Amino acid sequence: MGHFTEEDKATITSLWGKVNVEDAGGETLGRLLVVYPWTQRFFDSFGNLSSASAIMGNPKVKAHGKKVLTSLGDAIKNLDDLKGTFAQLSELHCDKLHVDPENFRLLGNVLVTVLAIRFGKEFTPEVQASWQKMVAGVASALSSRYH
Amino acid sequence: MGHFTEEDKATITSLWGKVNVEDAGGETLGRLLVVYPWTQRFFDSFGNLSSASAIMGNPKVKAHGKKVLTSLGDAIKNLDDLKGTFAQLSELHCDKLHVDPENFRLLGNVLVTVLAICFGKEFTPEVQASWQKMVAGVASALSSRYH
Lengths: 147, 147
Hints:
- 2 copies of one chain form a homodimer.
- The first copy, chain A, starts with 5 loop residues before the first helix and ends with a helix.
- The first copy, chain A, has one domain: Orthogonal Bundle (Globin-like), CATH 1.10.490.10.
- The first copy, chain A, is built from 8 helices and no strands.
- Chain A is mainly alpha-helical.
- Chain A is globular.
- The first copy, chain A, is 69% helix and 0% strand.
- The A-B interface holds A 30-31, 34-36, 52, 55-56, 109, 112-113, 116-117, 119-121, 123-126, 128-129, 132 and B 30-31, 34-36, 52, 55-56, 109, 112-114, 116-117, 119-121, 123-126, 128-129, 132.
- Chain A: Gamma chains make up the fetal hemoglobin F, in combination with alpha chains.
- Chain A: GO terms for molecular function: haptoglobin binding; heme binding; hemoglobin alpha binding; metal ion binding; organic acid binding; oxygen binding; oxygen carrier activity; peroxidase activity.
- Chain A: One of its GO terms (cellular component) is haptoglobin-hemoglobin complex.
- Chain A: Keywords: Heme, Iron, Metal-binding, Oxygen transport, Transport.
- Chain A: InterPro entries: Globin, Globin-like_sf, Globin/Proto, Hemoglobin_b, Hemoglobin_oxygen_transport.
């Protein structure tokens, strides 16, 4: 797992401060379900996921996406202990939800894309580098309690 | 490897028609080297890669990035036979260049980010889905001759 420099932390925190977690959450989870359709299997109870527009407009997708990114926001305050921050969620995703850890990497990459769309040129190579470390760290932390 | 629907092909081709291959090439390869610094090891002869701005401004990076994306543009005309299109390049990357195939996936994801920055909201979930299939197909085709 990557070590976050002070610069990484400042970059990550600064960008996150400008993110609307509700909008970005729905966009991120929605895009995961559209771009990687097999991930829909974890959300059977969410109702209509029959098309891209159904998915992107689905209120349960938006609500759950907001929940996921709110959790990410908490992690951003604890970048030096992602494993500790995500310990319980890691156990949950393994023992109860049975989510393949590869999906955490996919979600992380989708989030990076959503940030790129949102911030455009402001999402410079250096900013992308810090965020790529962030999502890799989160994916790793979420996988850490798997057995 | 994903099967490209007629819609995928139209989406991919249409977006590609608006891409400045020279700019996008430099941006994509540059970002790969900044975001995933270990990839710099394949480009020892490129001169100054000592900082993000050095990398992004390096003329050899730009030239080689353009070469890589030009090749991708050729593949877009042959989406039904990516393996055939990339057969020789696959052998080259394995036998001569010794590039770990994981790096093809990384480059593909960087390209998706660059397109997201360039096209913003126009890079809709459906467009992203087609392009994610595209880069996955290219990565797979480039790995196909590895032994």
